Amino acid sequence: MADLELTQGDTAPDIQYKLHEAGNPNAPLDLTGATVAFQMRKPDDRRYTVNAQATVDADPTTGLVTYEWGPNDLAVPGEYQGQFEVTYQDGKIQTTKTPFTIEVRRQ
């Protein structure tokens, strides 16, 4: 069963995700000054179907990010893996530990 189930062509609901320190789900990542990208691809593909900027919450210390679907993001039905990639001010990059699954069902 997928972590998130959507329908082909949908643009809602937005994905809201709380990023946390590796190994400690009670310690949110401090995203102050960071940029965050949402990335989605089919499990057997190296190319991202979606690789776009997510929005960091007004209080970046909460670790909360939101991704708003684009008009073509869910155009092709199938199973996908999603993750968030954080780029800090110093250029260091951190990707969410375990990709979550997204099922896009045919309309």
What is the number of domains?
1
Mean pLDDT over the residues: 94
Estimated radius of gyration: 14 Å
- Give the terminus-to-terminus CA distance: 18 Å
Reported CATH architecture: Sandwich
Shape: globular
Largest sheet: 8 strands, mixed
Number of helices: 0
Just give the CATH class: Mainly Beta
Strand fraction equals over 45%
Low-confidence stretches: none
The counted number of beta strands is 10
Helix content: under 10%
Structure description:
- Strand 5 (35-41) and strand 6 form a beta hairpin.
- The protein has one domain (4-105): Immunoglobulin-like.
- The strands form two sheets. Strands 1, 2, 5, 6, 7, 8, 9 and 10 form an eight-stranded mixed β-sheet that branches. Strands 3-4 form a two-stranded antiparallel ribbon.
- It is built from no helices and ten strands.
- It is mostly beta strands and 107 residues long.
- The protein starts with a strand and ends with a strand.
Give the topology.
Blueprint: E1 4-7, E2 15-18, E3 20-21, E4 24-28, E5 35-41, E6 50-56, E7 64-67, E8 78-87, E9 93-95, E10 100-105
Tags for this entry?
mainly beta, 8-stranded mixed sheet, 10 strands, 0% helix
Produce a short descriptive summary.
The protein has 107 residues and is an all-beta fold. It has strands at residues 4-7, 15-18, 20-21, 24-28, 35-41, 50-56, 64-67, 78-87, 93-95, 100-105. The strands form 2 sheets. Strands 1, 2, 5, 6, 7, 8, 9 and 10 form an 8-stranded mixed sheet that branches. A two-stranded antiparallel ribbon has the order 3-4.
